């Protein structure tokens, strides 16, 4: 079945540091890929998405590129801020059979940014 | 006002009790979902509904049931709560527009449930 694996956390960075959170997936066909963010005490909200190979999703300074050859969708940001402290989830939307349209999530990565 | 609301936001109950979590949305979306979140496990799908007459089990439906009362309302019930159902529960909605699995899901703020 479909699966998503994220790098283990927590990740702790200083403000203005470079961020990478790794995400790899296993799926049938060509799923859509997402990054969701969960700020403390809130629900998940979409950060960015990509729907086909080589697409780059971007939002709020975050970027991720859909890499079919490495089945990866790594999240990056060049200069993090304290306000980026949150839990980040990688997810895919399945295209296969009875799982069509359903999201499969990674385990989440906790990011803490210090001033 | 929030597009996806959940009630209650926090609930403490005892083993064996029946409990209902409610979700309402004003987005006009046909698709609704219930997930639970456990530390280190991400979110796992409990049930989903692609329209009012369509209810489907997710990967962890045992011990749960749902009701889709209207397009805007989707309730999750625990018939006899047990401690390992202690978790954070999220409702979500989506509106497929392209026919592919690209639809974004919109999440409610969550319900923190503790079963003693």
Task: Describe the 3D structure.
The complex is a heterodimer of chains A (115) and B (116). Chain A is mainly beta. Chain A is 0% helix and 50% strand. In chain A, strands 2, 5, 6, 10, 11 and 12 form a 6-stranded mixed sheet that branches. Chain A has a 4-stranded antiparallel sheet with strand order 3-9-8-7, with no helix packed on it. Chain A is globular and about 45 Å long. The N and C termini of chain A lie far apart (41 Å). The mean pLDDT of chain A is 91. The N and C termini of chain B lie far apart (33 Å). Chain B is globular, with a radius of gyration of 14 Å. In chain B, strands 2, 4, 5, 6, 9, 10 and 11 form a 7-stranded mixed sheet that branches. In chain B, strands 1-3-8-7 form a 4-stranded antiparallel sheet, with no helix packed on it. With 116 residues, chain B is mostly beta strands. Chain B has strands at 4-7, 10-13, 19-25, 31-38, 42-51, 54-57, 64-70, 73-78, 87-94, 105-107, 111-115. The mean pLDDT of chain B is 91. Chain B has no helices and 11 strands. The interface between A and B is medium-sized, with 25 and 27 residues.
The residue ranges of chain A in which pLDDT falls below 50 over 5 or more consecutive positions are none
Give the largest interface pair and sizes.
A-B, 25 and 27 residues
> Which outline of chain A best applies?
globular
Number of helices of chain A: 0
Report the sheet-strand fraction of chain B.
over 45%
Q: What count of helical segments of chain B does DSSP give?
A: 0
Helix content of chain B: under 10%
Mean pLDDT of chain A: 91
End-to-end Cα distance of chain A = 41 Å
End-to-end separation of chain B: 33 Å
Q: Give the helix/strand class of chain B.
A: mainly beta
What does the oligomeric state look like here? heterodimer
Question: Mean of the pLDDT scores of chain B?
Answer: 91
